[in-house]
UniProtKB/TrEMBL annotation:
The lineage of its organism: Eukaryota, Metazoa, Spiralia, Lophotrochozoa, Mollusca. This is Reverse transcriptase domain-containing protein. PANTHER family: REVERSE TRANSCRIPTASES. It comes from the Eukaryota. It comes from Mytilus galloprovincialis.
Amino acid sequence: MRCVNTIYAQCVKQGKIKDPAYNIYQQRLRTKKEFRRQVRIENAKVKDTEKQRIMETRTKDTKLFHQLVKSNRKHRGNTIMDMHVGDICMSGEQNVMEGFKQHFRNLATSEEATVLENRQYHQQVEYEIGLITEMVKDKNIPLVTLKELQKGIKSINKGKSADIYGITVEHISHAGKKLEMLLLNLINLILKEGKVPDMLKKGLLTPVFKNKGEKNIATNYRKITVLPVLNKVIETIVKLRINPTVLITQNVTQRGLTAGSGPANAALSVEEIYREAKDNNQEYKLVLLDAKSAFDVDIHSHLMKRLFHAGIDDKHWTIIQSMHTNATSAVKWNGKTSELVNVLHTRSTPGRYPKYGSIQALHQPSS
């Protein structure tokens, strides 16, 4: 800890440099990584010591017994035994999991009123999607190179939860050349066919409390879905390929889901307009819209149409379409996993929305 503080103080003294070319920045990263590693080691030692103490203790050790009971009660403090989904209350641990499944399935289903209101337009889009599918199916795309694969694996965030098969990106990144070549051949077969196998579209969905409202109300939870690692690799490769095309057609005022930009950039233009209105003694109104569960309830054929018109007109379009077709998830709750259910995958990151290049074009204002 002393070493970390010393390096950090030196870094602050030099102006918090974040350029990898500077030695002080590299030292800070190394010391932070080593510190976190030591913390994990010490935590593991504490757990092992506790397990050993339990194994070696006498049967009639009431003190340890009450310690374990107290500890277990602390861990179970967040346990809920009933779940409200709409007007329905589901009781029991198994029914709570069923409630989450029903809630997230409902989120992935477009409201009937919306579909009926725009039925003619929806039918037109579905017809157009059929034409697009025929147009792009024979437009082959370049095979993935070893360099692309390595770059894709490297760009995926490390230290994340395992997928439904118990695999993490670390398994792949440290597996060696033989597995790399095997993955390369497998991914190229998928790109040739233009179809992602259903087994790579099985997500592991964890409900996460939003820290507001009652814990037994389903709408107070958001879903975090972990996709199979190989799906993430394919997604990353496709994203890196199509991003240049998407950025050309992207609305110039868009700030979200755009690399190198963010809310601060959007706030600048709002601030300037506000100041100008104030200087000119003009009325100023700011309207903010929060699209609730926007990506969940969107009709995705409409988004795929926008993607095609954004310039993605080859088998990359087919791959993206395939990723969203027949996608399933298993709900993970209290250490248990449900059976698979048809719930659309929202590739969740800290911002809850897909870090997916194609989506940048799909959320533009309609012209």
